Structure formats: structure tokens, C-alpha cells
Amino acid sequence: MHEARPIGSALTRLWLAEAVGLAPMPSCAVYFGDARRLAVVRETARAIPGVAAVINPTDLSAFGSSHVVMSGRSRRHFTAPFTGALSIKGIVRGLGTWSTPDSRFDLRSDTLLTLNDGQQYSLEIDGEDETETFCVFFARGSVEAAAYVLQHDDATLLDHEGDQRFGFREELTAATTVLGEAWERLARSAGSISGVDLSWEIERLGSILARHALNERVRSNKLGSTKVATRQEIWRRVRRAMDEIEADLANDWTLAELGRAACMAPHHFQRCFLQLRGETPRRYIARRRLERAQALLRSHGTMSVTEVCLAVGYTSLGSFSTSFAKQFGYPPSDRR
Questions:
Q1: Count of CA atoms in the C-beta half-sphere (13 A) of 261
Q2: 47 touches 53 (CB < 8 A)
């Protein structure tokens, strides 16, 4: 078994290897385990040829020094407060709640959560149906390096690496985004691809996360205020309302209610929402309801179309079926 090494400059090593035609061998610690069998997993370690890899969740030194994948299945599980590396939390099926000192995030299969390096959080799963989680922890500095590259030209990158610190916004992201699609691809393939290929897929996901974060900053800059602090405050308030929406998509949200959730005048909120998201709050809610419905139909085989229709806030099955077919190109009865 190769010893896992810190890979703050992993992307640099990968680029150099590509340039000279060599096969790179980044360090990548991979964790798999069922939440109900942690006691067994903790005593297990296994090498994957060509890359450092262990199955040993108690080896906390891997977090931050290597890429780590944590996956598990459980109906009831609680993780005590833990401080981890930059990570993407995701649910393959079911429902899980991640809590930080300042926020609570209810995740389903149609949303992802990004948490910063050094953020303390806990996880709670408590339901009748089994929940499957898939979380990716990035090696410290690897995604920050990707963000730095996206912001600078070749001459700057060749001459000086510079300050690569980058704060990622801790937010829920729809699984239908490019970031969500990359996460889903990784979740589907992680158990069947080799260690080196898995490392490349994690690096790819990190690059997409970096671009996603930069795009969010560009959207914030579209706000009318010239003061950075004002733009950041508006973004936080709009995100607060969006989190409220995600927590209760079935609610009959009004503009006034969303304005109160954001602590903003209703029409000021709507204007800022449109500038930040590129769509109105009403359109956002309609789209997210249909995306949630699609996720429920895929992951809950026992739910009928009518039950899903009601679960996402529709009162008319005919209206729901028409909207669903218009959005996805097939009726909700055709589960995919």
C-alpha cells in the first residue's frame, strides 16, 4: 500500500504529467462503508493497485491530505459534530439533514450541499425508508487551485502561483446543474472504477465545483450595488429565501412570504432574485417542484404519480402531468 500524501499541488502534478505523456498517480484515499457496519469497517484496510487507498473511517488524517469518498446506507444514523475538508454532500435516495452552527440543510436526491474546509457539521438520518449518502471530500487546496487557474492567464500561472485561497459558498445546489450531473456520474461509477480513474473523476468534479463557484460570483456582480459588502448581503438574504423554498417546495409561496424570509421588500427581493438566478422566483419554484417530482419518481418506486403530484405542491394531477411532460419530454407515468 502506498502511503497517502498531501496533494495541495495535485492539479499541477496532473497537468505536468499530461504535458510530458506520463500517467499521473495522485494520492486518493477512498472510503466505502455501510453506516450500520462502521464497527467492522473501522477494522478494515485494503490497497487498490496503483494508488493509496484505505477503507478505514477512523483514519482522520486522510481528510484534507487526500481525496475521500464516504458512502453509506441506513435508516437511522447520527454523526457527532465533525470538522472536515471542503466537501460535497449528496443523497442517492432518501433524506438526510446536515447541520452547521449557523444553518440546517435537508437534503434529498435532487439537491447537493457544499461545505467549506474547516466547517463543523453533524449528520442525522431518521426515517422509515433507507437513506443512501454519497459524499466527496477534496484534498485540501486542490479545488482552490482549480479556481485560481480559471481566474488567471497562462503567463501568470507559469511565473507565479500566487494566493490560492478561495471561500466557497455553503449552499444547496440542484442536482440538475452541471455540478449535480458530475456528482451523479461519480456516485454511479465509484464502486466499479479503479483507484486512479476514481481520482481523475474526483479531480474533474473539483474543477466543475470551482467553475460553479466562480459563476455564482459573476452572478452576484450583476447586482446593481457597487459595494461588495452590499452584494454579499443581498446574496445571503436571497439564499436564505431559497433555502426556505427548498425545505418546503409544496408550500403555496407568495412574493410577500419570500420577501419576509429574505428580510427584504417583496419587489426588491424579486428584482435581486432575477438578477442572481436569471429567472423569477415563481419560475424557480415551478421548475424545482418538477425536478423534485422527477427525483421522487426515480428513487421511490412505491410512490404513485398522484402521491408525488401532491408531495410537490400540485393539486391537479392533469396540470402536474402536463407540466412534467413539457419540462422533461415524457409523462410522469413513464418512470426513468
A1: 20
A2: yes
